[in-house]
Amino acid sequence: MKIAMIGTGYVGLVSGVCFSDFGHHVVCVDQDQTKIDKLQAGQVPIFEPGLDVLMAKNVEAGRLSFTRDLASALEGADAIFIAVGTPTRRGDGHADLTYVFAAAEEIAKTAKDYAVIVTKSTVPVGTNRKVHEVVKAANPDLDFDVASNPEFLREGAAIEDFMKPDRVVVGVETERAAKVMEDIYRPLYLRDFPILTTDLESAEMIKYAANAFLATKITFINEIAALCEKTGADIKKVSKGVGLDGRIGNKFLHAGPGYGGSCFPKDTKALARIGQDVASPMAITETVIRVNEEVKHRLVEKLRDVCGNSFKDKTVAVLGVTFKPNTDDMRDAPSLTLVPAMVGGGAKVRLVDPQGYREGQDLLPGCDWLDDPYEAAKGADLVVILTEWNEFRALDLSRLAGVMSAPKMADFRNVYDPSDAKAAGFEAYVSVGRSDYG
Ligand code: NAD
Questions:
Q1: How confident is the model at residue 297 (pLDDT cuts 50, 70, 90)?
Q2: What is the DSSP string of 206-218?
């Protein structure tokens, strides 16, 4: 099979590399010249574990290449994937489909032969039909089908997720398109990974429903965590006890500083807007969006409390700024709310993150960046754990407390045990949904 992949971001690049590893010939296209220059030079523009090795292997094998030239990428392509961004549209919460429709129009004007135009981007129900209209209007003679193939990979574990998915969802309208999609995913089909074939609308809806459900699960446990703090229960024990129920499951039940990232915030907002548009209110999702914002503000107040009711002139070391470990993605990370609140309140903030600097330096102005947690904690009044990178999971707490001027910790990923923090010399320790001291 020959595949063209439009967009080489977190989804497009991982999908393109993995499809080429299936044995398909893949040409990845991006309008961003800097990205294409890097990719052509063998560099991966994002941080995703294992992607560099897999990319090099498939480039070497002659199955994977990168270009800005759409025409050469589309030549002989059986399928053309659209994997461009669908961010929140400014002002109204809708998914911004500008990039999707622009890509569809460019494809229409460039493609010559039959191909399936596959939307991998997360798009509201009805978008694939609009893609069909856009292509038809721009090139009435083109022979094509559309397909919806939402992506479920998680940043940080993207290759594993793509190669061993819980399921692949394919929305199609014709047998011909179904056959092309089946051939593309045959390596997964042969290994018994479920491939669910649906209509276009159901495929589009599955993606939003799945993300809204996961965001709800996280938000639910964060709300239970707040209740634990008031009642003396311990959220770690509660999560464990709840998650052992097979009907519930233990994933996405970890209390923390609220969900962030490139998907949940924008997809929950878009789903709420879809509901409003068709007068079918998404009351649960709307509440989840509101409560998730409140979680972050509640934690800002916790930080202020532990700092003695004011950030003024406090030195704070923040460990982790990316929205989760093993990615450099900063989109909607909780750090973007918590850090500016401290800086705005007069704190001197030092940041440590294994991959966050490239994106974070512009997003978090007025902070110092350091490489080492102990260096960052030197003379500090407070250490805050915001992202549970492995590097921050096994700190020598006594050493950390020993270099601080007033050893206090806000552990918003519940990595450590309050009793261990106390034994190590921390005079105050606050976390999420457990008994704090100090
Ligand atoms: P991204 O912003 O990282 O990448 C998008 C890329 O598309 C950019 O490199 C941009 O330059 C390029 N692009 C835009 N218009 C183009 C055009 N006309 N021609 C060529 N290139 C073009 O986005 P992402 O995180 O990869 O997300 C892509 C889609 O996948 C979104 O709809 C997102 O919701 C969805 N998704 C993302 C994830 C994730 O974890 N990031 C997971 C599942 C689904």
A1: very high
A2: HHHHHHHHHHHHH
Please enumerate, as own/partner, the contacts of 270-276 that have beta carbons within 8 Å and a separation of 24 or more.
270/86, 270/88, 270/93, 270/94, 270/95, 270/122, 270/124, 270/208, 271/208, 271/209, 271/211, 271/212, 272/93, 273/92, 273/93, 273/94, 273/95, 273/124, 274/124, 274/125, 274/208
Bridge partners of 352? 319
Determine the Cα–Cα distance for residues 145 and 104; give it in Å rounded to an integer: 12
Q: In 3-state terms, what secondary structure has residue 260? A: coil
- pLDDT at residue 438 is higher than 90: no
DSSP-assigned states of every residue in 328-395? ---TT-THHHHHHHHHHTT-EEEEE-SS-HHHHHHHSTT-EE-S-HHHHHTT-SEEEE-S--GGGTS-
| Three-state DSSP class for residue 433 | coil
Confidence (pLDDT) at 375: 98
Of residues 332, 304, 315, the one with CA closest to residue 430 = 304
User: Is the pTM value of this prediction over 0.95?
Assistant: yes
Please, how many CA atoms are within 13 Å of residue 431, restricted to the half-sphere of its CB? Answer: 25
| H or E segment and range at residue 178 | helix 175-184
Six token digits for residue 328 = 């450099």
Parallel/antiparallel/unpaired status of strands 2-6 and 79-82: parallel
Q: What gap in Å lies between CA 306 and CA 284, rounded to an integer?
A: 33
For ligand 1, the distance from its centroid to the CA atom of residue 261, given in whole angstroms, is 13
Ligand 1 in contact with 85 (CB < 6 A)? yes
Among 18, 228, 263, 367, which one carries the catalytic annotation? 263
CATH 3.40.50.720 is the classification of domain 200-438:
yes
Ligand 1 centroid vs 32 CA: distance in angstroms?
12
Which CATH code for domain 2-198? 3.40.50.720
- Comma-separated ranges of CATH 3.40.50.720 domains in the chain: 2-198, 200-438
Q: pLDDT at residue 333 above 90?
A: yes
